[in-house]
Structures are given as C-alpha cells and as structure tokens.
Amino acid sequence: MWSFTRRHSVINVFQPSLGEEEAAAVAEVFATNWTGRGPRTKAFEAEFAEHIGARPEQVLFINSCTSGLFLAVDLLELGPDDEVVLPSVSFVAAANAVAAAGARPVFCDSDVRTLNPTADHIERALTERTKAVVVLHYGGYPGHIAEIARLCRRRGITLVEDAACSVSSTADGQACGTFGDISTWSFDSMKVLVTGDGGAFYARDPEVAHRARQLAYHGLEHASAFDAAKVSDRWWEPNVQGFGRRSIGNDVTAAIGSVQLRKLPDFVARRRAIAALYDRLLADAEGVRLPPPLPEGHTSSHYFYWVQLDAAVRGQVARDLLERGIFTTFRYPALHKVPAYRSEGTSLPGAEEAADRTLLLPLHQGLSDSEVHTVVDELRKSVERRSQALRIGG
Fold first, then answer.
1. DSSP string over 291-316
2. Using CA atoms, how far apart are residues 343 and 347, in angstroms rounded to an integer?
3. Catalytic residue among 42, 131, 191, 230
4. Is 34 contained in some domain?
5. Which residues are reported to carry the modification N6-(pyridoxal phosphate)lysine (predicted)?
6. Quick one: 255 and 268 in the same domain?
7. What confidence tens digit (pLDDT) does each residue in 149-175 have?
8. DSSP-based three-state secondary structure for 56
C-alpha cells in the first residue's frame, strides 16, 4: 500500500496533493510497458483543451512551461533586431527565452498592489521593434488581460500568455491562456495541478499549433516511426521540417495530469476558501496590506496569497516566520534589477516597491484552517514586534 505523508513539520508555502489515484494511474501506464508519448498524452491534451475551451489540436502537452516559452520564441523567429515587452515582475524563464534568441527583453512596470501590468504600462514600453508581448497572470489573478489583448491586436503584435500561475483563472468566463496568440501553463511540483514536471502549450492558429508539435520533437513531421510507417515505405528516414528540441510530455506524467485535472475544481475551491480565511483574519492587522479583491467577472486559481509590509521589516518578518516553522517567499524579484538583466537608469517604481514589500504566505489545498490561524498569529506578532522596534530605533 502506498503511503503519502508530509515530510517536514514546516508549514510550506507550496505543496502538491498527490495520492492513491495518481499512483494507480502511473501503475496502469507501467502495465502497458510504454512510458513515452502515447494514448494517455493524447487523452490529457484533449481533456485540458476542453478545460480551457479550446480544440485538442490547439493544445500540446510538453515537459515544462519553460519549454513552452522557448517554443514560443522559436515560432516567433525572434532575432537581434526584435524586442519583446514583458513585466519586470515575472519569472526569469520568459526573459531567458527572449535573450537566448538574441532578441532584447524590454521590461515594463506593474501595479504595486496586483503586481500585474496594465495596458498603459505595456503601451509605454512598445517601440517599432516590438515583435511580441509576454504577460504573466500574477498569482493567478487575470489582471488587465482583455485590454492588453485588444492593445496587441490593434498594434499587430503577438501576445504570449505565461499562464503558469493561472490554470483555472478566467476573465468574464474566458480562460486565461486563450486571450493571447500563444500560451503556456506549468504543472511542476509546486503548482496547483501537478504532473511532477510538465506543462501545456496552446496556439490560437491551428497552423502554428501544428508547427509547434514539429518543433517540440526535433522538427520531425512525425513523432514516431509507427506514424511515419502509415505514410511512407521508408519510415526510418527522418522528415525533419526545421530545427527543434525535445520538449514533449509523456504518458507517465500525462496520466498523473488526467487525475489532477479531475480534482482541480476541488483544489481551487479549497484554495479560494483559504484566501478568504486569510482576508478575514488579517482584515484589521496593522501594518499588513492585503491583496486587492478580484474585479467582478474574474476568477483566480489562487496560486499565491500575498501581503505587503513595510520594506524595512519584510525580510525580518520572513525570518521570524521561518524560525517558527512557517516558510514564506517572494516571487518574482524585479528582473530589471537582477544581474543578468540589470539596466542602469531604468526606473519601474511599481515593480520595485512591490518587490521590496511583498511576501507570499503559505497557500495550498492541503493547508488546514488551524495552520492558517497559526500563520496569521505568528505574522501579526512578528509585524507588531518588528514595527515597534523600527519606531523605537528610527
């Protein structure tokens, strides 16, 4: 009998929910003696496509969200003369994909409360060399995605959605990830829906989706010799259509994904309840600013729950909580400040303030109400103590 227990006594900021059903699904794959890309991968692609309101041929199961971003850059054929606008508050994978192609990442500001860019933030960063815009839905909050999509269409610029955080997020009934031309989701071990490593890729244009399938498996027209044998009597000769990588998913991780997708509504409902509990317990906490409420018509995957503190005490509070067995973090440090992308003279005040003040509290569907109360109690005590010391010392 399989046993799934928490490995540490620390209250984790992220934690997956895996159990007997996922183990049974993997065992079924092992029983077929085929663990590569196959029928379970195809089934998961169709299931995820239905989840986001797309067609199966528009969706590809891949080995990571990062691979999806690099795949998007390959499809855009970016080069040294091209610029890509993206928020400075985002994961480094998007900027790395752009820079690796020889193109220039251009960072825009974000709203200090939502940590998402507005259409105005993006428009101010556009130039004649802008070939694409990449946006992240911070913590699962959709942000101004509809307005940003309209801006990109009006300007003839490709919109790429880094939907890593927003597997169940919607804006006015439309799934995040389907507003843009290309999108990619993350299913890594810290996300809401977990396959271990993995992700999904979406292209609005079926021709682009077909091209993505080729590039995700070395540029081959057919991903397997069995498929090639149906159309050629020399199936062992590769029909390479372009330069690609190996970014495909497999039946082991896809089988886990199918189970997780069935559980996803319950996962998100629990996360929503935890976020609401934090809101209620911290509503009157002095020195603690809560995330803004979702706009009407928006839903979130509730991947992050963040608070904002005085920048002078944020790090001390995080250390206090860690010493009390509560792990917190901040994602994502402003990219225009990290060594690889540091740009002297660039000022993005919203991103910089958010990066100095924001702290992510534990949020995952395995979190109990009593653990939430513990986090809140320890946070309140630490903020009060550190703020008082700052007043006395300052």
1. PPPPPTTEE-----EEEE--HHHHHH
2. 9
3. 191
4. yes
5. 191
6. no
7. 999 999 999 999 999 999 999 999 999
8. helix
3-state helix/strand/coil string of 140-192: HCCCCHHHHHHHHHHHCCEEEEECCCCCCCEECCEECCCCCCEEEEECECCCC
Q: Is residue 303 part of a domain?
A: yes
Q: What percent of the chain has pLDDT over 70?
A: 93
Tokens of 91: 């994961």
- Write down the pLDDT at residue 3: 36
pLDDT average, residue stretch 96-109: 98
The DSSP H or E segment spanning 65 is helix 65-76
Residues 167 and 119 in one domain: yes
263 catalytic residue (yes or no): no
Pairing of strands 104-108, 158-162: unpaired
Q: Which domain does 90 fall in, by range? A: 20-259
Nearest to 194 by CA among 388, 21, 369: 21
Asked whether the beta carbons of 169 and 186 are under 8 A apart, the reply is no
Q: Which residues contact 119 (CB under 8 A, 6 or more apart)?
A: 144, 147, 148, 150, 151
Give the model's confidence band at 384: pLDDT under 50 very low, under 70 low, under 90 confident, else very high. very high
